[in-house]
């Protein structure tokens, strides 16, 4: 059985309806996976593929999408099935055609994200690990947010970078020492988070409903999602007006926690893309250390 035949079989089994590909086109799937839109003349699906050992990554993505589908104001693609052959792993998703964002859709995205963050858990983390891009993301539960951010986010990134960037690890150790001071008194609820909310992971469907996808789900400080939206751009003033109007920013976000939470993604990008991001991360760390 070829890989495409295996994907046809998996879709047929998952949906209870025979599926035979008569249209296959490449789609944008990011830097990590190959992506295709598959159709049979009546239905279309979005399929991402990778090496067979990446099946766990796709299973975690599917679980994250299911978790996000608790939100009512946002559209989240339905995961159809995850499977693997000897040659590749794949995830099959509901296909959602995207349209160009409008001011109204960005407003609705801000409102929808605020609603998503209102879904809370008793502890920070999640019941399974997943990935941020291709890198492992550790989600062991913690009652204390500072402990979670230190152990599950910053420390693991710094340890991974230490062999190639010892100066980053050295500055990181200094930052970890003052982290309790930087987050002193900050006790956020454990909100349901997208986890990787940059402009490429959000859009609008053809009915104008905001769509989010490609998550790195966990429960934690809602401000982490907002901080990432401000790091790489792609979100309009209408989005922020709607979000902060529904859930105003707390004191210390812009000066302390925004750069602290963006740092996590700069460190991840340093692991993926190298020295420019490492230098940027060092600047942020030293600015935070000076504030502490």
TrEMBL record:
InterPro entries according to UniProt: Fructo-/Ketosamine-3-kinase, Kinase-like_dom_sf
A GO MF label: kinase activity
Keywords of this entry: Kinase, Transferase
Pfam family, one: Fructosamin_kin
Superkingdom of origin: Bacteria
Family: Belongs to the fructosamine kinase family.
Name of the protein: Fructosamine kinase
Native species: Salinisphaera hydrothermalis (strain C41B8)
């Amino acid at each position: 059985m070829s890989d495409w035949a295996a994907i046809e079989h998996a879709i047929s089994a998952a949906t209870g309806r025979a599926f035979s590909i008569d249209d296959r086109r490449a789609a944008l799937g990011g830097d990590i996976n190959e992506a295709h839109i598959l159709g049979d003349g009546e239905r279309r699906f979005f399929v991402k593929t990778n090496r067979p050992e990446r099946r766990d990554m796709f299973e975690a993505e599917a679980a994250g999408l299911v978790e996000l589908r608790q939100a009512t104001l946002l559209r989240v693609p339905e995961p159809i099935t995850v499977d693997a052959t000897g040659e590749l792993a794949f995830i099959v998703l509901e296909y959602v055609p995207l349209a160009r964002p409008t001011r109204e859709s960005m407003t609705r995205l801000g409102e929808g994200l605020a609603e998503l963050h209102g879904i809370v858990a008793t502890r920070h983390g999640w019941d399974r690990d997943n990935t941020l891009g291709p890198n492992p993301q550790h989600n062991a539960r913690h009652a204390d947010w500072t402990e979670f951010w230190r152990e599950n986010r910053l420390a693991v990134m710094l340890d991974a970078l230490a062999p190639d960037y010892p100066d980053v690890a050295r500055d990181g150790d200094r930052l970890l020492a003052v982290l309790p001071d930087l987050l002193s008194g900050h006790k956020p609820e454990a909100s349901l988070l997208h986890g990787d909310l940059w402009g490429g992971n959000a859009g609008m469907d053809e009915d104008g409903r905001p769509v989010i996808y490609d998550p790195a789900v966990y429960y934690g400080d809602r401000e982490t999602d907002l901080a990432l939206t401000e790091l790489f751009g792609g979100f309009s003033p209408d989005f922020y007006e709607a979000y902060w109007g529904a859930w105003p920013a707390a004191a210390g976000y812009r000066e302390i926690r925004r750069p602290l939470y963006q740092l996590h993604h700069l460190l991840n990008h340093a692991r993926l893309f190298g020295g420019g991001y490492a230098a940027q991360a060092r600047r942020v760390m030293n600015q935070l250390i000076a504030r502490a």
